[in-house]
Amino acid sequence: MNPIPVNEQKPLVDRLTTACGGTYTPAQRRKFFISGPQWAAAYEGQALFHAPTRKPVAFEEVIRHYGEIGIAHWTTHDTDVIPTDSLMTDEQEKIVGRIGNSLRDNGVACSMVTTETFFHAVFAGGPAAESPAVREYAASRLSNTVGIGHQLGASYAVYWPGSLGYQIQGAVEETQTLRWYAEGLNAACEADIRIAKEHNRPTLKHCMEAKPFEPQAEILLPTSDAMLAFIGSGLLKHPEMVGLNPEYLHELMWGAAPRAALARALLAGKLWHFDINDGYRLKHDVDIAIGLVNPLDWLNVLVLLRSHGYNGPFNLDYKPPRTTSNDGVFSVSFPTAVDRFITLWEMAGEVLEDSIIRDATNALKAGGVVKNAKDVHEITAANKELLTLHELIGHRLFQILVGAHKGRVYSV
Ligand code: GCO
Ligand code: MN
Ligand code: MN
Q1: pTM greater than the 0.85 cutoff
Q2: Is domain 24-349 in CATH 3.20.20.150, yes or no?
Q3: 271: which DSSP letter?
Q4: What are the percentages of helix, strand and coil residues in the chain, rounded to 5?
Q5: Is 160 in the pocket of ligand 1 (CB under 6 A)?
Q6: Whose Cα sits closest to atom 13 in ligand 1?
Q7: Which protein residue has the closest C-alpha to ligand 1 atom 4?
Q8: How is the chain split into domains, by residue range?
Q9: How many CB atoms lie within 10 A of CB 309?
Q10: Which residue's alpha carbon is nearest to atom 10 within ligand 1?
Q11: Successive 10-residue mean pLDDT values, the chain, 412 residues
């Protein structure tokens, strides 16, 4: 192979991307409640051991590209778009005005806003630190974000309490810190009730997002289940306004089955928003794009959500790899992530209609014929053959995933 000059590389990537085929049109993509985060597209590839590999990208460019790709919704942290020093000033108003124009011009809607309470040095001790001034500032930031959300037409606010925890054992009293954290959420909900009235809009859905570790060694609300317990703890003034934004990888990170975690959120009526991505168990938060690591598990997750009529957002909270170029973020990373999601969503529909899976599931639910309901041996024997269907269902899901049920003949 001859070395490939830089000016031939993008055409090569474009040619191979086109050759992959299977792309959905922007109009088809827009039919889904898919949102693209500002921070995901603008991620420059930096990390603890990694220098940036991409140039900064402003919101105008992100929103324009999302509009072209067919990602109809946009999400942002306050500080992704407004420098910390400009928050809660006239400068904020100007920026929010520019964002509004950009969204309108590109047919993109803001669906969710979130407050960055983890990056700035003021949050070194977390958003619910001992210092009353830090907590008051955190509460005003949360309330300010709610206001921005209403100005931009969002319906959701997300809270990722990543710095609610500690590195040093014994330095933090957990019950007190959680009470203080609840006060921040209470302030946001109260502000929401007031601001929503002013804007003649419904209040936002306030969604908590758990991650088991990172950036703190120990996190006080490490899982979606911990958050459900917190919502129901009596500390929140408006628990009915607060639900969950689980992230696929965050549940996987602690070794959970994401589908089971989502099922528990569904049963609690709190599955309101969903961050979609992929990665590895018991590793750090690599935020790989959906379906690149666990496509079969993803298919199963979407079967669950389709069958329960989940109609909230699917938020593309992943990080384009640092090997992807600035151009590649919008020509490969986002379109392919969206298209894998839609493909898996369509397959989930096929799974729900599949006659083999339906027959097998119905047979398992019917169970075997038992005369004596107290006879453990009879009950066991009556269901023995039927239970083989569990494995057959797994095989059928695999066939649907790889398209084998349509008669693959590669290399036959
Ligand atoms: C992560 C987190 C964030 C949050 C975001 C919303 O992976 O580090 O998921 O991306 O989703 O901060 O508040
Ligand atoms: Mn997330
Ligand atoms: Mn993550």
Answers
A1: yes
A2: yes
A3: B
A4: 55, 10, 35
A5: yes
A6: 160
A7: 160
A8: 24-349, 355-406
A9: 7
A10: 317
A11: 97 97 96 98 97 98 98 99 98 98 98 98 98 98 98 99 97 97 98 98 99 96 98 98 99 98 98 99 96 98 98 98 98 98 96 96 98 98 98 97 76 64
